[in-house]
Amino acid sequence: MKKIEAIIRKTKFEQVKNALLEADIEWFSYYNVRGNGKARQGRIYRGVVYDTSSIERILISLVVREKNVEKAVKAIMNAARTGEIGDGRIFVIPIENAIRIRTGESGDIALYNAENEQ
């Protein structure tokens, strides 16, 4: 099992969410976060200069089985990419165990409903 954390632009959240759903990744959490990046120059948008050193982003967090890691990462990358500085980062972190509280199931079976598995 792996935990995938992706920090993406707020404007790309709906596209990333839809891409994950299309890749059959139906469960994830997301949070509004702020961070500092490399870019220090101001950006001009509609005549107003914005400081880009502290930028609002979305942090998406999901835990998937090994077989779903690549398709989840590709879905996020393809949907979140603009080609400009500040597109974000994806982190893939090993998970030792998962336990479903309701049933006590542990391991990767705790991540999905076995009756729906084919």
* Helix run count: 2
Architecture (CATH level 2) name: 2-Layer Sandwich
**CATH topology, what is it called?**
Alpha-Beta Plaits
Distance between the termini: 19 Å
Q: What count of structural domains? A: 1
- Note the beta-strand portion: 35-45%
Average pLDDT works out at 88
Rg over CA atoms: 17 Å
- Main CATH class: Alpha Beta
**Major beta sheet, strand line-up:** 2-5-1-6
Lay out the secondary structure.
Blueprint: E1 2-9, H1 13-22, E2 29-36, E3 42-45, E4 48-51, E5 54-64, H2 66-80, E6 88-94
Antiparallel strand pairs: 1-5, 1-6, 2-5, 3-4
Descriptive notes:
The chain is an alpha+beta fold. The chain has one domain (2-116): Alpha-Beta Plaits (2-Layer Sandwich). It contains 2 helices and 6 strands. Helix 1 packs antiparallel against helix 2. It is elongated, with a radius of gyration of 17 Å.
Descriptive terms for the model:
118 residues; alpha+beta; Alpha-Beta Plaits; four-stranded antiparallel beta sheet; two-stranded antiparallel sheet; 2 helices; 6 strands
Compact summary:
The protein is of the alpha+beta class and 118 residues long. The chain has helices at 13-22, 66-80, and strands spanning 2-9, 29-36, 42-45, 48-51, 54-64, 88-94.
